[in-house]
Each structure stands twice: as structure tokens, then as C-alpha cells.
Design a protein that fits this description.
Length: 266
């Protein structure tokens, strides 16, 4: 019987004073917003599971509060939905984004700059769907090629889409992470995320969810090599994290790697 296996690492990196990232893998998150957090996950295919990365913004305590709130909301709302079909799953995750958004909006009354990205994957091991706001990313390694499945909600990407910029070399660095969408920005309570189509999960795929602390430090070629060569998801997750650290670790780093396996797991 096939199983979904995943591993998550979240770390404050070498420069930041605290860890404003958080994650969800199954029912596990960084509940105390620790500087270092790690978890492993195994579940038989056929049951719905949720994985997500939440990169807090706002500095000091604001960002870590927002990402913690969002990860907890998703944990609470994705524990008992195995009877849902795909359509109901999609509506449920859209609603969960709205609940998380309103919770962070309420927190902004105390920390006016706080907010968080939210990049969430739902899967039963046969297919998966991405729900997304911000600039955390989802990649898939398929047939030894790397594909970015999410699209950054940043000022830089918006200007590229509009034709104001024609290449990445033209973009001022500050615009690469000025978010145009995030959890906590809609004071009317409307927080509809980007949604992908349902994507078939092929047998040898490896799925990566990460914050910008990984992809800002590592090229796509480096990420692909690590996902291709590492023996299992735990090793792949650690190698990606260590690679980001070795190139400076200038931001918080959160990495989740998922794959299917039919190997017996203790």
C-alpha cells in the first residue's frame, strides 16, 4: 500500500533574531514558534492530508504571531475531512483562508504590520491542489526536472506581468518581496487564494514547499540536484536546509518535502 511521507524543517537561519516562519504537516506545526523545529509525517494514501508554509511578515513579534495564527487555523480546520470530495475540499480550504485572514486582521489591531504568506497543498496521494497567497513556493521534481507550481504575489512579479520589466535583472531587490497578496490584508474579510487545478501525483514525484529563505539562497539547479540525488525525504529536507545555511542563511528557512512510497515504514 502506498504511503505519503513528508518531512519538515523550520529554522531562524543565521541572521534573523527569531523565526517568523511556521508550517503545517499533517497535524504538526511549530506551536511555540521555536527557532528550530522539525517533524516527520507518514500516512497511507487515500486519506486527505494538508501541508503548508506560512512566512510571517512585520518584524519583531508580529510576523511570528501571524504565521502561528494561520498555521493553527489550518490545523484546526483540516483534521476531520476524509469524507469530503474534491469540490467540498476546495470550498473548505477557501473558507479556511478566510478564517485565517480574519484572525490575522484582528491581530493587526495590536501589531499593525503583521501578516503572513500562506501556501497550502491538499492531497490524498493520487492528486494534489495548491492554494496560495504570498511568495512562499511549491515545486515539483518530476522526471528529473523542476517545476514551480505557484506564482509569487510580489510587486516585482506584477510589474513583469504588466510588461514594465522585461527581465529579472531590471527588478530592484526591494520589489522582489513586496507582497501584493498575503493573509491579513483584506479588511473586508475576503481572502480568496489562488488555486491550481488538481494535479496528478506521479509515482516518482517529489513535492517541495518552502519559504523564500530557501530559494533566495539556492538556485533552481541546486534545488533540483538535491531533490534528485537525496535518498529519502528526511535527507532531502536536511540537505536543502543546510544548503541555504551554507549560502548565508539570511532569512528564516522552512522546507517541506513530500513523496509517495510503497516501502514498509516502521
Amino acid at each position: 500500500m502506498k504511503k505519503i511521507v513528508g518531512h519538515a524543517v523550520s529554522n531562524r537561519g543565521r541572521v534573523r533574531e527569531n523565526n517568523e516562519d511556521n508550517y503545517l504537516l499533517g497535524n504538526c506545526l511549530n506551536a511555540e514558534s521555536l527557532d528550530e523545529s522539525e517533524t516527520h509525517f507518514t500516512q497511507r494514501a487515500g486519506l486527505w492530508t494538508c501541508a503548508g508554509v506560512f512566512d510571517g511578515m512585520g518584524g519583531e513579534a508580529g510576523g511570528e504571531i501571524a504565521s502561528n495564527i494561520a498555521s493553527r487555523v489550518f490545523q484546526e480546520n483540516t483534521m476531520n475531512f476524509d469524507s469530503f470530495d474534491r469540490e467540498k475540499i476546495s470550498r473548505h480550504i477557501e473558507k479556511t483562508f478566510a478564517i485565517a485572514n480574519q484572525a490575522v486582521v484582528e491581530e493587526r489591531k495590536k501589531h499593525s504590520t503583521c501578516g503572513t504568506t500562506g501556501t497550502v497543498l491538499i492531497t490524498d496521494g493520487t492528486s494534489f491542489k495548491i492554494f496560495h497567497r504570498g511568495d512562499s513556493r511549491v515545486y515539483v521534481m518530476r522526471d528529473r526536472k523542476l517545476y514551480v507550481l505557484s506564482k509569487d504575489h510580489t510587486l516585482a512579479q506584477l510589474k513583469l506581468d504588466m510588461g514594465i520589466y522585461h527581465s529579472a535583472e531590471e527588478i530592484p531587490e526591494r520589489e522582489n518581496h513586496q507582497l501584493t497578496e498575503f493573509i491579513g490584508m483584506d479588511y473586508a474579510g475576503q481572502a480568496v487564494p489562488f488555486e491550481s487545478e488538481w494535479i496528478e501525483w506521479k509515482e516518482n514525484d517529489r513535492i517541495l514547499l518552502c519559504s523564500d529563505g530557501l530559494y533566495d539562497m539556492c538556485t533552481s539547479e541546486m534545488i533540483l540536484k538535491c531533490l534528485t540525488m537525496s535518498g529519502d525525504v528526511e535527507k532531502a529536507t536536511h540537505e536543502l536546509f543546510e544548503m541555504a545555511m551554507s549560502f548565508g542563511g539570511k532569512d528564516n528557512i522552512t522546507v517541506i518535502v513530500l513523496q509517495l512510497t510503497d516501502k514498509k515504514i516502521a
